[in-house]
Hints:
alpha/beta; TIM Barrel; eight-stranded parallel barrel; globular
Amino acid sequence: MQVQIVEVGPRDGLQNEQKVLSAPEKIRLIEMLAEAGLQRVEASSFVNPKWIPQLADAGEVCRSLPHQSRVRYSALVPNLKGLERARECGLTEVALFMSASETHNLKNINKSIEETFPVLRETAREALALGMRVRGYVSTVFGCPYEGEVPLDNTRKVTNELISMGVYEVSIGDTIGVATPLQVHQVFAALVKDVTTERLAGHFHDTRGTGLANVAAALDEGIRIFDSSIGGLGGCPYAPGASGNISSEDLVYMLHGMGYETGVSLEKLVEAGAYVQQLLGRALPSKVLQAALAQSHRRQPESRAEGGKA
């Protein structure tokens, strides 16, 4: 049984970090992710740098992505201008995004849901005409930091609109990490009535510690595509209190233990997590990463200074 992992750390993970990594550091991280066997990597975002300064170097990063035929790189774009920038960098896939919650959409995009549809439809039409693949994101599906509970009908409407625009896949997001497995069952059971499981993905945050349990629930509903972030990096600038995405290391460990194939080397993934942790200068949330680093540390022989005092 195969599960696809979409690595969103270079974009969703780094966009909320106070420390801004350099373009060469980001490119090296992406190289390590590709070397680990990840075949889908979201490299950056072409939103206005004024809003997400951590990703102001999107053009430089995307022009320097490692050339590996088996790896598909993508970037987030909000409109035609973002699409043009992504195309100039040679990307062949972009992602569109909006919220199931009206207030979060206004905070995030500065437009109502109804005002967002024409912008995304125009962007998707142009991208498809250029021969590009288009993915869609729906945020705040399971709860909104401003409105609380979000009606399921909102998600169904936005998802169906995105599908009608020609997106090949819609990622269903628990932006603030409030979902429980029961909710996940309910939401995906409803969505698969409108959209085939092959065109749906799960995007979970681990704010309340239910991220992997929610993946297991989505697997039960036939979902086989999940977004995750190296080290558990992440959060949303427009969702106060939202912590990181589920960790790629934790996700791969769990999936392999459940008998699923991912094509990803957990050992190399841990190396990538250790690299970005060192760059950021703080411990990352990934439990598998921290366990592996602790085990590695225990294995290292103690250095002894000869002659008594060092």
